[in-house]
Structures are given as C-alpha cells and as structure tokens.
Design brief:
single chain; about 120 residues; alpha+beta; Translation Initiation Factor IF3; elongated
Length: about 120
C-alpha cells in the first residue's frame, strides 16, 4: 500500500503540488458503550481521564484517517493537504467523526525541472 503524506497546512515543505485531485474524506459514526458510560460517570465524580473514551476516540481517528487515505489513493493522490477533523452529534449517545482534505499529487521540489528562462 502506497504511503500518503498528510498535512494540515496547504503546503508540504520540500514538495511541490503538481495536481489537485479533489475533496477526500473519511467518516465513522460511533455509539457509546453502556459499560464505558458507567465508568465515565464514576470517573466524573473522582476526576481524571476517561480512558475508555480516549481509546474509543483514538480508534475512531485512525479509522477515519485510513478511510480518507484510501479515498485519496483511489484518486491517484500521494498526499492530502488542508486536512481537518470535524465531529457532530447524530443522536443521543452517537456521534460522527469526519476527517477531510484536498487530495493532491506532489513531487520533490528538487526533482522538478525549472523551465523558466535563465
């Protein structure tokens, strides 16, 4: 599987965008788990990190990133720029996590031929 460079910026240092391929995204809708909710309520009383939700969100982020990169590969991209995450509540106890960006094809800046007149 080819590597896809991800960037939240509009440019990638040392690379030149040679082709814009369009919007790509990855989404996942997740529901809370009743067991995790009970533990979260207990942690809410005593304080501290809610590890179950941290793990759920980390897994969700990885899943949506993988889906977005698959979408980019299908378009022939080797990078995604201007990448952003978004969340929205779908129903009580369920939320959508989305990542989106612009699929591009990049080349190393020093490999490009400068065709400007000398």
């Amino acid at each position: 599987m080819s590597r896809v460079i991800l960037a939240t910026s509009e440019h990638i240092y040392g690379k030149k965008i040679t082709k814009h391929l369009g919007l790509v995204r990855g989404t996942s809708i997740r529901a809370r788990h009743i067991g995790h909710d009970i533990l979260a309520k207990l942690r809410g009383i005593v304080g501290g990190e809610i590890h179950e939700y941290t793990k759920l969100m980390a897994e969700s982020r990885e899943q949506v990133l993988d889906r977005m990169m698959d979408d980019a590969r299908e378009l022939g991209a080797n990078a995604v720029v201007a990448m952003r995450f978004s969340t929205s509540q779908i129903a009580v106890g369920a939320a959508e996590l989305m990542v989106y960006g612009t699929a591009v094809f990049v080349e190393d800046a020093d490999e490009l031929i400068d065709d400007r007149p000398a």
